[in-house]
Amino acid sequence: MAPTFMVSAPGKAIVFDEHAAVYGKPAIAAAISLRSYLLVATLSKSRRRVEAPYREAAKIHIKSATAFLYLFLSLGSKSPRFIYTLRSTIPIGAGLGSSASVCICLSAALLLQIRALSGPHPDQPPKEAEIQIEHINRWAFVGELCIHGDPSGVDNTVAAGGKAVLFQRNASGPPSVIRLTKFPKLPLLLVDTQQPRSTAIQVEKVKTLKTNHPEITEMILDGIGKIATSALELIPWADFSGNSDALGHWGTLISMNHGFLVSLGVSHPRLERIRELVDYANIGWTKLTGAGGGGCAITLFRPDIEEQTIEELERKFAAEGFQIYETILGADGVGVLWPAVFRNSTDGKAGEEIDQKMFENADGVQGINQLVGVGVQEYREGWEFWTRDVSPI
Ligand SMILES: Nc1ncnc2c1ncn2[C@@H]1O[C@H](COP(=O)(O)OP(=O)(O)O)[C@@H](O)[C@H]1O
Ligand SMILES: C[C@@](O)(CCOP(=O)(O)O)CC(=O)O
């Protein structure tokens, strides 16, 4: 009987150049340490059934249940004796690529079950690892087609390989995607306005602005495009540890990028409130991420911020109904915990299997992170990742 195992994949944040990306400018999206986790447990022979990963048939789950069924019927092992249990720490519908992360988990788990992947293991040649990542990514894209209709493929590419990508739309074909394997791991505050938003409406807003004020809007879009280029130039050589100017340089670019997005009309009073509170606390540089009009803001921390200042700010956010996440930018891509057994443990659980009940009962984001997390506060040993060849940037 195959052991119980687990796979995990990150969400994403657009770090530079949303909206300008629609008009062919380069944009940078990076993996964040909020993740989906999928536990695959084998049933005994007497219990032959397939259990879908969503316990409540809530409307919001229907699309991803469809993706699961499509992938399961395309890739599923001939012996349907498994329970797939999905838990996630990524807010849904907030522009953080939750569905792509789910699809990467489903695709990786199903491909592992039919033994169509090799690794991950520490000695695996990067070229071979790259092939596995792409195999997972392509099937995940099929799942994304079920959920999003016509996605660009950026979210699943980031969730598969982690770190970050530079993507650029192409008038005559699919977008070009360059993997940024040297992208730094940076602590990030992610604040969810809890304000629902529609990407299509925000994109339409910019289109109308461009029709009514073509010259000025194009100037703004050009300006935004130059921001990603400038940010990119720093990656190969910069030290982002806080001992150099690199972090401040990126911080300035983040603030400038937000200013441009405000002038395109895609911010929201709740997003501006986040920026105001962060600016008063003077802890970092803030911009909206994704389509805007609600959704999330990201703050890159200045170096040497006192924990107390962050805690005070977090209290203010909570009092005003914002949801906060301390995350890492440039997180790892798809990972595997095989078998799903505790390796390190301060609670005397080392060697114990992480079973379905334990996973289901984990209490919220914190509970999931404590149990199996590869996030910020927790890093459970045993997770392995396919590691790509290091690119020049
Ligand atoms: N963890 C999840 N569980 C169930 N369904 C999900 C999950 N994540 C995403 N989805 C489905 O995918 C849709 C798109 O969500 P998401 O990827 O978060 O959108 P975006 O990143 O564009 O804001 C949701 O409306 C929901 O139907
Ligand atoms: C506004 C835009 O640039 C990014 C939208 O991001 P999201 O849907 O919020 O993840 C649209 C796009 O590039 O397709």
TrEMBL record:
It is found in: Cytoplasm. Its EC number is 2.7.1.36. It catalyses: (R)-mevalonate + ATP = (R)-5-phosphomevalonate + ADP + H(+). The keyword Zinc does not apply. NCBIfam families: mevalon_kin (TIGR00549). PANTHER family: MEVALONATE KINASE (PTHR43290). One of its GO terms (biological process) is isopentenyl diphosphate biosynthetic process, mevalonate pathway. The keyword Methyltransferase does not apply. Gene3D superfamilies: 3.30.230.10, GHMP kinase, C-terminal domain. Its main location: cytoplasm. One of its GO terms (molecular function) is ATP binding. Belongs to the GHMP kinase family. Mevalonate kinase subfamily. Pathway: Isoprenoid biosynthesis; isopentenyl diphosphate biosynthesis via mevalonate pathway; isopentenyl diphosphate from (R)-mevalonate: step 1/3. Residues 250-318 form the GHMP kinase C-terminal domain. Mevalonate kinase; part of the second module of ergosterol biosynthesis pathway that includes the middle steps of the pathway. The second module is carried out in the vacuole and involves the formation of farnesyl diphosphate, which is also an important intermediate in the biosynthesis of ubiquinone, dolichol, heme and prenylated proteins. This is Mevalonate kinase. GO terms for cellular component: cytosol. InterPro entries: GHMP_kinase_C_dom (IPR013750), GHMP_kinase_C_sf (IPR036554), GHMP_kinase_N_dom (IPR006204), GHMP_knse_ATP-bd_CS (IPR006203), Mev_gal_kin (IPR006205), Ribosomal_Su5_D2-typ_SF (IPR020568), Ribsml_uS5_D2-typ_fold_subgr (IPR014721). It comes from the Eukaryota.
